[in-house]
Amino acid sequence: MLDPGTYTFSIDMGWNDTSDPVYLIAAAGNTLPDINNISSALGYYSFKNKNMQFVITQTQAVSIGFLASLFSRNQYWVVKLVKLVKS
User: Fold this and answer.
1) Which is it for the CA torsion 83, 23, 48, 4, positive or negative?
2) How far apart are CA 35 and CA 81, in angstroms?
3) Chain-centre distance for alpha carbon 29
4) Over the stretch 74-86, which tens digit does the pLDDT of each residue have?
5) Bridge partners, 27 (sequence order)
6) Which of 86, 87, 84, 82 shows the shortest CA–CA distance to 13?
7) Which residues pair with residue 16 across a beta bridge?
8) pTM
9) How confident is the model at residue 18 (pLDDT cuts 50, 70, 90)?
10) Cα-to-chain-centroid distance, residue 84
11) What are the angstrom distances between the C-alpha of 16 and each of 47, 58, 77, 80?
12) CB atoms within 10 A of CB 61
């Protein structure tokens, strides 16, 4: 549950080798949307940006994480740290 406000979700990357899109994403509720419905999210940014900002206007459950379609073989990523900060 998050209170209203502006939030920044950031990551510290380790090694990665991915050619297919990977996103940082925040969505209202207890699940993340399918990649085909990514526009329904509160916010999403390319994984390579390492930061994502989103705004919520009322107290609500929010799911935060990673969304990917890894169609190619031998892709990976390592995330060393995740951080959520309210501005």
Assistant:
1) negative
2) 23
3) 14
4) 777 788 999 999 9
5) 63
6) 82
7) 77
8) 0.86
9) low
10) 11
11) 11, 36, 4, 11
12) 11
